[in-house]
Write a structure and sequence with these properties.
CATH architecture: Distorted Sandwich
CATH class: Mainly Beta
Strand content: 35-45%
Helix content: under 10%
Shape: globular
Number of strands: 13
Radius of gyration: 16 Å
Number of helices: 1
């Protein structure tokens, strides 16, 4: 077995055999059956006068939203712009995954709860400042600083990882 080194979000990871991958490289799609045709890179667009820094995935209201990585629900929050939101930290606490405009949360979801990749955590909707006629999942990723404050995280474009996750799941049409 040979050792490999890999830098993960500025952290040097040492592993024997396979490298330790950051959770971004292990993401699953946030909704079942997602296809490449449904993805559009809206990260750099301006929405409501500010950078979007997220991907909008159009989905029918009440489509189950899945945790993209194993992690911990750090915050459930209702905000004026995001409506019903979820902040999920990955197991390494390197990234925070943000799910917004949810119609509602999965039954029993609570702060501090461990979730597995693919577990239903909420349902797509149009809460907050979303157009009520266009339910969707607003999905964002933030690289956490040493303080682990999601509201101060550095926005990371999730589009390339979502494309890779869809291809791995077989939804490449």
């Amino acid at each position: 077995m040979r050792s490999r080194l890999r830098t993960c979000a500025g952290v040097l990871a040492v592993a024997c055999g396979a490298a330790t991958l950051p959770s971004l490289d292990q993401m699953a799609p946030p909704v079942r059956g997602l296809t490449l045709a449904e993805l559009r890179d809206t990260f750099n667009e301006i929405h409501n006068g500010r950078p979007h820094e997220a991907i909008d995935i159009p989905e029918p209201r009440n489509t189950p939203v899945l945790a993209v990585v194993p992690g911990t629900i750090r915050k459930l929050f209702r905000s004026k712009p995001g409506g019903n939101t979820i902040y999920e930290f990955d197991d390494q606490e390197i990234y925070c995954y943000y799910y917004a405009h949810l119609d509602h949360y999965a039954e029993g979801l609570r702060e501090g709860m461990r979730v597995t990749r693919g577990e239903v955590i909420g349902y797509a909707g149009s809460t907050g400042n979303a157009d009520p006629r266009a339910p969707h999942l607003h999905f964002a990723v933030f690289e956490l600083g040493p303080e682990k404050q999601w509201w101060k995280g550095k926005a990371v474009n999730p589009y390339p990882q979502l494309v890779a996750a869809v291809k791995r799941s077989g939804g490449s049409r």
